[in-house]
Each structure stands twice: as C-alpha cells, then as structure tokens.
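User: Could you go from structure to sequence for me? I need the amino acid at each position, not a summary. Structure tokens:
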C-alpha cells in the first residue's frame, strides 16, 4: 500500500516499450535488453519532470506470455538497483502487445513534492 499526502504532483507515464529515441526496437527477442530500454525510457520521462525512480509509487508491467519475470527483475536490478521505497508492482501476462516485436511494456505513476515559490505558495 502507498499513501500520498501533502502538496504533491502526480506524474503518469503511459506504457513504455523498447523503442529508443531514434525509433529503433532495442533487443529483438531479448527480454533483458528490452526491459533495460523500457526502464531507460521511463527514466527519461521522469527526468523531464525532475523525478527519479525513487519517486515512482506504482508500476504496471505487461509481459508477453512465455517471458520469464525473473529475467525482467534481473534487468531492473542491474538498471535501477535497490530502492529505499520500492513501488507497488503488478505484473500481467498478455498474449501480445500493440507492437508485436515488443515483449514488455511498463507504465508508471510517480509522485513528487510540489515546491512553492519563495512566498511559500
């Protein structure tokens, strides 16, 4: 369970797949490489809002049937590492994704404390 209170901004990151910023699929038929690219895409989106994975409170992971969640977890640990407050995670096995070459898609919700101006607003 995660509870958020106070003056905070919620960031919703829609489903990220293993397509890089140049529009290329990274890691065809390779869950580990695809997971690392997905996490990189999420980190980029978080950074645009001055947030990090430490601010993520929820991950929904959509993984194609036949993929081993342990491989995805290994890639997460190598890319992100241990988090002080790990997010809630839901893993859903699916028959396929919008891009049939993708093995994994992740959406995220992050919360960051809003900073008021110098007057404290």
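Assistant: Here is the amino acid at each position, in order:
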């Amino acid at each position: 369970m995660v509870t958020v209170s106070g003056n905070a901004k919620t960031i919703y990151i829609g489903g990220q797949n293993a397509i890089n910023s140049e529009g290329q699929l990274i890691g065809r038929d390779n869950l580990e490489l695809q997971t690392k690219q997905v996490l990189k895409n999420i980190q980029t989106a978080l950074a645009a809002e001055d947030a990090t994975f430490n601010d993520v409170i929820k991950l929904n992971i959509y993984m194609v049937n036949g993929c081993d969640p342990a491989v995805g977890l290994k890639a997460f640990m190598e890319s992100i590492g241990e988090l002080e407050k790990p997010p809630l995670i839901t893993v859903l096995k699916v028959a396929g994704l919008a891009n049939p070459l993708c093995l994994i898609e992740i959406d995220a919700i992050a919360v960051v404390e809003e900073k008021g101006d110098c007057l404290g607003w």
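One structural detail worth keeping in mind: The first strand starts at residue 8 and ends at 16.
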